[in-house]
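Reader question, answered in our methods column.
A reader sent in the components of a multi-part assembly and asked whether the whole thing could be modeled at once rather than chain by chain. We filled in our standard form and ran it. Here is what they sent:
COMPLEX SIZE: three components
ENTRIES:
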Amino acid sequence: MSKRLGSQTIVFQNSPKIIGNYTIVGQKEGNSNFKNYFDYILKNDLFGEKTYESAERKMLEHAILNAIDRAGLKTQDMDLLICGDLLNQIISSSFAAREFDVTYLGLYGACSTMAESLAVGSSFIDGGYFSKIACATCSHFSSAERQYRFPLELGNQRPPVSQWTVTGAGCTILSDSGSDKEIVNATFGKVTDFGITDVNNMGAAMAPAAMSTLIKHFEDTKTSPDDYDLILTGDLGKLGSEILMDLMENKGYKLKDNYNDCGQMIFNCNQKTYQGGSGCGCSAVILNSYVMQKMDEGVYKKVLFAATGALLSTLSSQQGNTIPGICHAVEIRRK
Amino acid sequence: MLLMYLKVFLVGGLICFLGQLLIIKTNLTSARILVLFVCIGAVVEAFGLYEPIVNFAGAGATVPITGFGRSLAKGAIEAVKEKGILGVLTGGITATSGGITAAVIFAYIFALIFSSKTKKY
Amino acid sequence: MNSVERNKKYNQYVESKKPNTKNFPTLIYAYLVGGFICMIGQGIQDLLMKIFPAMTLEVASAWMLIILIFIASFLTGIGLYDRIGEFAGGGSIVPITGFSNSITSSAMEFKKEGIIFGLCVKMFSVAGPVIVNGLAISVVVGLIYLFL
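And here is the structure of the entire assembly that came back:
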């Protein structure tokens, strides 16, 4: 069997196994629909640190340490750490990695980083280069808000198309053996830009990228949306996932009840987040808590996880550039 | 007395209402709204039309940021009459120096005392 | 279909998909809160003139604005002004209190990057354009009067 399908999909012959997960979320997420699934809920969004950036770093450290522990391993057993976050120069990831005596790769795929890190990590394991890899991402509402938007105490209203950056970190431990949940293939996405300039409307900016990657995945693997128990996009939000469904239908793929979106799922409608959640942490905490537990329970056997990211910076949007989107997908199966 | 307060409420509220209408319809950020309203206030004052609104509605016309624009324009006009060309440069900021300095100093003090907190709803 | 055409079509489609929010209530809240803030201002002004009978209207008005700026700055400090803003939108942005809020909130937010390069530099990140454009327009108005 070829290790590559079509132009963008790679197939793992020695499928990497998911042997440990851990999620940590902020207070607001702790009141959301999935509060019973998260492993740790912060009592204070500062997490005992002085700044929100430090709190974000500490959340990531906490998630990685506990995920390694869940997998029954020690830090020195780990071969590689793959992390990413939203802050400039991905400082949360690199600073968290400083605390571990493990080789480290930093990724930036905006909110798609969770899927990207799983795909990259799986390739290393399948290739036989490493056997134990931690893939983690994090985001923090307050640090993202001050970097991308306005001061927290500014008395303005959030636009109705906006999404709420999730405060949270999630970590997945991949291994060459030891579990019945495995990553069977991954589809890398292309940067897609349909000319959206509204920085608040990230869902609309990312939906075309999600469409491109999902369709490529279905074509490459010769499957259809009905073949999956769950198709989960990253953080398109309510509006973005409606747009994705329309786009997919136009291309002849109908997404049905088995489709959902992390951003749309995470917050309940009383939490005033308008279109739902976003950020690296959003897809990371949903995947590593809810989806993994449901897979363990046997509810889902075949999950397509397609995290989406908007690759903008504050400079690019101030200079009037359109927002490019990216989406990477990994297929997770339980034997 | 009560009538005066009603006028203050109606006029002040209306200016804010127009601001909110602009925010909803055009997605302007709050900084742009403030800039726009300051300029509108200054232009209206330059035509001599802001004074009647202040006489009619008192604080209803001076509290909204348009009143800040009006002070800038009014200060410039008066200073030009007194000092000529130097007034062009000194008038605006002299008339509003109290407000600007107060805003900066209070911000300095309170920023040293308090830190921003995560939004919770 | 070329990409320019596709993007145009996509933007139009997204525009049509945007949620029809309940705009009407926020307009009313803006009116009520904005009007209320102005009434508080008028109240302060009247009170000042009652306490200090020698005070002219102009001086009382200046003091009233400074007191409002102080109150807004304080409310921002204790974390209440952003909640008022979330509810009232333009109602709490357009009054002078919104100007004060924008300076104090920026100063507080960037305090962690140091007093000089954080607090003092970033203090004007939202309100800077207001002062800059305000001064510019006052110069324009002054020039016009100079040559009239």
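What stands out: DSSP finds six helices and no strands in chain B. Chain B touches chain C through 81 residues (CB under 8 Å).
Send us your own complexes using the same form.
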